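Hey L., structure's done. Input below.
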Amino acid sequence: MSADDSQLIWKDEFSVGHLGLDGEHRFFIELLNLLSLILAARASRQEILELLFLLESETDVHFQHEEEVLKLTGYPSVREHAETHRKLLEEIVKARLAVENRGEIDVSAETARLSALRQMLFEHILSEDMALRQHLG
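Output:
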């Protein structure tokens, strides 16, 4: 995966070797790219919130799915991986709450928050989820 200032690009070499999980990871990248675009376009608070709610709910479902795959395949570090998921989901919730609790969108602050969130999710996929590829391989 590579990123410029606003867009993420999925590369097949970052596949974890599980069609469902890879599809979900690609979807997250699309959501994060869309969030970057609508922030840059100064979309409404409601549009931004809708995407953050979608990111939050889809992330929760994905993490549950991924943890089930880990359990079913006998992955040795399921608990640690699940704890990382919990922390990442908390960050997404914090991002949503920051927008919900603010009367107006602070584009600069939300762009910085999204950038940090994107980096955390990227690092998770590229490091911890790559261990799953080795496990499934």
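Strands lie at 2-3, 8-9. The CA atoms of residues 34 and 51 lie 8 Å apart.

-- N.
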